[in-house]
Amino acid sequence: TNAAELTVRQTLFPLFLVTILYFLWGFAYGLLDTLNKHFQNTLHITRARSSGLQGAYFGAYPLASLGYGNWVLRHYGFRAVFIMGLILYGIGAFLMWPAALKERRVHLTTPRDKVFGGFCAATFVIGSGLGCLETAANPYMAITGPPQYAEIRVNVAQAVQAIGTVVGPVLGSYVFF
């Protein structure tokens, strides 16, 4: 079935699922500043050095969205890009765990640069996954459902992304750190 021919009711569930992706990338983006401050305090690195997290996160976006995310979208479709983006996001999140374990032992054996480099690498993988998701999510929201509601669908999803951007640092500062 052509996605534009679906009724509003038929589009609710798939659009709800994609809107969750918007929340996830807003949440991840919101955590960046909280992570920066945490690394400055625990690893005793400068603000300039901690900006490596933003560099890793946003450096991955053009590679993912213009590079392989776009290629996968053209050759395999939305589902493949969503799956690839979520897998990359998940791998990046799991890579945070060994870096966090090293952070706890930083005072014993591991140099601070290696620990922070691990977090930057994990953040790059997360940014790659989110870049893939963003490559597919906006066009998917626009074409799924009646065309006269395309702007509303995209705006609602981006509002959910903004909510994730607010929830990320709040949850990060109170629960994680």
TrEMBL record:
Bilayer topology: Multi-pass membrane protein
Compartments where found: Cell inner membrane
Gene Ontology MF: a single term: transmembrane transporter activity
Main location: membrane
Keywords: Cell membrane, Membrane, Transmembrane, Transmembrane helix
PANTHER family per the UniProt record, alphabetical: L-FUCOSE-PROTON SYMPORTER, PROTEIN TSGA
Protein name, per record: Major facilitator superfamily (MFS) profile domain-containing protein
Organism: Fistulina hepatica ATCC 64428
